[in-house]
Amino acid sequence: MVEYAIMVALIAAVSILVIGFLGLDVLDAFSDAETKFDGSSGG
């Protein structure tokens, strides 16, 4: 039972880290897209 708890904790920690890094990449991508749209609107 303890082994399963450790595995679940490790999987949760890795998932949180991966989602955090991907979240930053997605945020950067949306920021770049917003900048491009704002620059090309001409208004």
Would you write up a description of this structure?
- The protein is mostly helical.
- The chain has one domain.
- 91% of the residues lie in helices and 0% in strands.
- It is built from 1 helix and no strands.
- The chain is rod-shaped, with a radius of gyration of 19 Å.
- It starts with a helix and ends with a helix.
Order of helices and strands: H
- Overall geometry: rod-shaped
Largest sheet descriptor: none
Query: Which segments are poorly predicted (pLDDT under 50) over 5 or more consecutive residues?
Result: none
β-strand amount? under 5%
Gyration radius, to the nearest Å? 19 Å
Tally the structural domains: 1
Tell me, rounded to a whole number, the average pLDDT: 87
Number of helices: 1
The amount of helix comes to: over 70%
Number of strands: 0
SS-based structural class?
A: mainly alpha
> What is the end-to-end distance?
62 Å
At a glance:
With 43 residues, the chain is mostly helical.
Please name the defining characteristics of this protein.
43 residues, single chain, mainly alpha, 1 helix
Topology:
Elements: H1 2-40
